[in-house]
Amino acid sequence: MEYIIIIISAIFVNNIVLSQFLGVCPFLGVSNKLSTATGMSGAVCFVITLATLVTYLLNKYLLVPFGLEFLQTIAFILVIASLVQMVEIVLKKISPSLYQALGIFLPLITTNCAVLGVAITVVTKDFTFGAESHMLNLGQAIVYAVATSIGYGLAMVLFAGLREHLALNEVPKSFRGLPIAFITVGILALAFLGFSGIV
Amino acid sequence: MSKWSTFTDGFVKNNPTFVLVLGMCPTLATTTSAINGLEMGLATLFVLVLSNIVISLIAPMVPDKVHIPVYIVVIATFVTVLQFIMQAYTPDAYKTLGLFIPLIVVNCIVLGRAEAFANKHGVLDSLLDGIGVGLGFTVSLTVIGIVREILGSGSVFGWKFIPGDGILAFVMAPGAFLVLGYLMVLFNKYLKRS
For A73, which of B80, B178, B180 is closest by C-beta distance? Predict the structure, then answer.
């Protein structure tokens, strides 16, 4: 039951872009075309899940036992940066086709605050399940990471679709480019507000 | 480029929020009220100025291949210092801004200024650039915060002048995107000179 709550909450109710505002820069940057949007979502899903796994274990077995929680920020960003590098090298060797597909998006992900945001959230925040609330265990953390990146992908694909239509319309001069994009995301976020209260 | 223009460029010409469109996550997430926007801006200003100074000093010594990881470590160190200071002196602000304080590490403005400015200029210029861009960011965040607070709760800096509830959506997520979008339109129309 807790897993279902985590999944619904992460995808719809607390959507990472539309209600938590994480990863907005790449969200706006690569959502011009549907194909790049799906590529980026795939890469983000991969890295968020892997980064959450590693940082969760690092926090639980290294930082907490030695009382070094204050190093979380530094340790996590270093882990994420090197993880992205490693994933790039390994993918290049093992699966060149996947590397080709994700290639250009991988370096961008280090500075995607969604990755660091999820890694910090799972080790610091209490999650509410009905009456009780507690920190996530490893399994739940992984499920949360996967569901969050599905939510990211959903928002990105929806927005890319809207943006492709937007490109065909006549937009007033001052609205062109990012302003109209922000207003569109705003309306999309209003729609997602309708999910609040489900869990 | 004179010292004065180094300082003022961050306000209008290179405004980090409305022109460069960097650091969108904290801009959208923490501007639910004017005071929150101001606090977030000042926190970023702190990290930006200190990391600009240190990076301008160490830049000549850092090998080109590893410069990004080195800069990120410098920035992350100052963010950790900031976390300690805020926990000690402004625990309320630390609690409201929450996740977005550690996330200053991945704020593109800080790394962006390090890459684009601090590693090519002297200490004094980098200090002025940090203050200029940081203030530009702070002012933008405060303006967005003021607009959202007026529409969402009918007050400015906690001083309530419209009785009643206000439009709740502007304090919540959609309002952030809409207000930023429309402010950007106004900025393009009246302030941006091509």
Answer: B80
From CA A24, how far away is CA B170, in angstroms rounded? 18
What does the pLDDT look like over A114-133, one tens digit per residue? 899 999 988 888 787 777 77
From CA A23, how far away is CA B25, in angstroms rounded?
7
Looking at the DSSP bridge assignments, the partners of residue A132 are A129
**Residue B11 DSSP label:** T
User: Where do the structural domains in chain A lie, given as residue ranges?
Assistant: 2-193
Q: Does B124 touch chain A (CB under 8 A)?
A: no
When scoring A80, A82, A113 by the number of chain B Cβ atoms within 10 A, the one with the most, hence best to mutate, is A113
Taking CA atoms, B8 is separated from A148, B11, B119, B143, B144, in Å, by 40, 6, 19, 18, 20
ipTM of the complex: 0.84
pLDDT tens per residue, range A6-33: 899 889 988 998 888 888 888 887 888 8
pTM of the model: 0.87
Instruction: Yes or no: say if A98 and A91 are a contact pair by the CB < 8 Å rule.
Output: yes
